[in-house]
User: Fold this.
Amino acid sequence: MPGMDKSASQRFLLTTFGCQMNLADGQRIRGILQRLGYDETENEADADLILFNTCCVREHAEERLFSRVQSLKRLKAGRPELIIGVTGCLAQHHKKRLFEELPLTDFIFGPNDIEELPAILAALIAEPGRRRAGSFADVGHFAGEEADGIVLDRPFSAFVNIIRGCTNFCTYCIVPSVRGPEVSRPIHELIGLVTSLAARGVTEVTLLGQNVNAYGRDIGLADGFPRLLEELESVSGLRRIRFLTSHPRDFSAETIGRIARLSKVCESFHLPVQAGADRVLSLMNRGYTREYYLELLATVRELIPGVSITTDLICGFPSETDSEFEETLDLVRRARFDTAYMYYYSPRSGTKALDIAGLLPEEIRKERLARLIELQNSISQQISAELPGKKFEILVESVSTHGEGHVVGKTRTGRPIDLAGPASLVGNYVTVLVERARLWTLSGRLLQHDVEFEP
Ligand code: SF4
Assistant:
């Protein structure tokens, strides 16, 4: 790399906060740093470069970052040559004041500037002590990635960004102003990328976007998302296709029908509903009603038998009444989600929801959340209780935290199953009989070993 002058023994520590989009960005950053000759370490004291890949969706994540960077003060004082950087949504959001707020930081760059990282590091090494920033020039630009530049946490499974940004402007969400408008990566590039990943041994891809259903709209493909899935279905070596996240408003019956015909697309849909009352959905600017949402679920379940449906829910939105919260509980009872990510509303600077009158006291928001979690957990428990005695194909993902001689894998529906087995099963597809069920995770017994994984 021109301008780089570093010994091969330098090490980086990368910490990623937030969603799968950030994890995918982390894969690319790791690939770039390894190409530059850095080795990865998990120990701050060993690192020459400490980089935080941040999320700003929740205020809490921001606070965590600030305290993590501040905690490096003593390390930096003892080793002034230590380089500290911040990237991700928070760097994009606070680009004008991050150096002031985090004086220990040597460089910042946005999620769309990842390819600038080598030049930024070269400049930092050439002129130590002078801070550097990425261009932050065009958040709507899709910075592509090549298969050989991605370092996979698991060599058989990859995240692939298909669309960046979001143009939905949900009133509680900061993403559109941070990540910019929707920009799709051209379909031929994605097919090429996934084909190369499959040739490297990847058998499962998770397609990522804030709203994957919008894929292709900005590049003139009205049916871009189902078309992309249909083309990926024929990639040799690929066995499972997943995607995250779908906006319910953009999921047509026609798209669901086309997806239902594809054998590699897993029966697992994350469909964030957020609330169950029409007035609250409207205040959130979600663009659908509860009736529309429940009909959508009925269509998915009719066309894709055995599908697992998960969701996101926010309770205690400003001005939400008791009866509107009851409507959310009612929707949860009817929808019977496999599981849900549940939160109570927290004000977030930079969002329109701040202007909505009627912020509820925190104790009411917390109390509603506790009721919501209790209800959803009882439904998850009932669904899980039906699974013992059933057989599932799983992709074994890792050695289990439950102890030596155990591994854990996921069903096509996204359920983790723990089973006794050697670490050599990791990366393989096996058939498992479920023996016990907890709330979401299962334990089972190995029945059949289907495919040898060849890294
Ligand atoms: S769809 Fe709504 S919640 Fe999701 S990223 Fe876009 S604005 Fe945020």
Notes: The chain is about 30% helix and 20% strand. The first helix runs from residue 20 to 35. The pocket of iron/sulfur cluster is lined by residues 166, 168-170, 173, 175-176, 210-211, 247 (CB under 6 Å). The chain has a mean pLDDT of 90.
